[in-house]
Structures are given as C-alpha cells and as structure tokens.
Amino acid sequence: MNSESLPILPLGADVEPAVLDLNNRHAVELSFLEPERLARMIGDAFCARRIGQVEAFLIAFDQDADYDSPNFQWFKARYSHFVYVDRVAVDPAARGKGHARRLYRHVFDRAATGGYPLVTCEVNEQPPNPASDAFHAAMGFEAIGAAALPGGAKSVRYFARPIGAPPPAST
Q1: Is residue 119 scored above 80 in pLDDT?
Q2: Pair 118, 159: CB distance under 8 Å
C-alpha cells in the first residue's frame, strides 16, 4: 500500500496512546500533552484525523472551540470565522510521504465545505522550525503576525491561508 492510498481516519480512543506518544516526542514544536487534555482536544476538534495507524495526525479547531491556547486566542480575537490547525505531526519514519500535505488538504476541503474563509496556524520562530516554515509557505500560508508566548521561552509567527486561494501545487 503506497502512502497516498493510506486512508485519512478519525482520531479516536483506540489510537490516543499512539497520538500522545507522537505528540510528546515533538513537544518542543507542539507542546507536551497529558492524556486527559488530548482526549478533550479530540472531542472539541473541528477536525482530528490520522493517516495509517498513526503515521501522522492533525488536530484543528474552529472559532467556536472552548480552547485556551494563547495561539488560538490570538486568532479568535482577530477573526470571527476560521479554522485553526493546532498541531500536526508526522512520525520520523513516515516523513517525505506527503502525509502532512494530505492532512492539510483534508482540512482545506472541510473548511471550504463548511464555508470557512480562512485556515490559520502558527509556527515556532524561537526555537526556529525552518522545515515547518518551508512547508507552510508551500501550502500557501502567509505570515500575518507574531507573538512571544507566556514564559518567554517561545515565540511564534501566525499564518493564514484563505480558502478559495489557488490550491498548492502537488509536489
């Protein structure tokens, strides 16, 4: 089975331990999660999907989510109708297969179907994440702001991609 034929599936309780493990291996980029917080996030998500058993996953919220992330709150203060990609992770063994691109396209499609005009996200500026910067640029995101997060250890850049923008080129 090639990577394009692996289905995009919902996140559920059956894969939460694997999602938690993958997330927490990328805690510098994503932030560490406890099992209860992950379960609540999945339950509140606009889109919570995975590829394969858990080769990759994505969790996104819409503006109505009850979510206390300072990054989500930044978008909520500025936009009335949007989808916010909170986290996406790809297992190192599955990188280069297009999983993140497929998951984002899934979110773009769901946002378009739901009438959302914008998909948003943030990328770490400190510590830097050049691979994520390049990926988001290739997916059509543009920088719209920046912030230092509470505690001062992290700073982020905020990005948005209008739905209805030309789809990113396949690579």
Answers
A1: yes
A2: no
Peptide bond into 127 cis (omega under 30): yes
Name 158's bridge partners: 122, 145
For residues 129-155, give the mean pLDDT: 91
Residue 9 located in a structural domain: yes
Q: Report the CATH number that the domain containing residue 44 is assigned in CATH.
A: 3.40.630.30
pLDDT (tens digit per residue) in 12-33: 999 999 999 999 999 988 999 9
User: Would you state the pLDDT for residue 166?
Assistant: 59
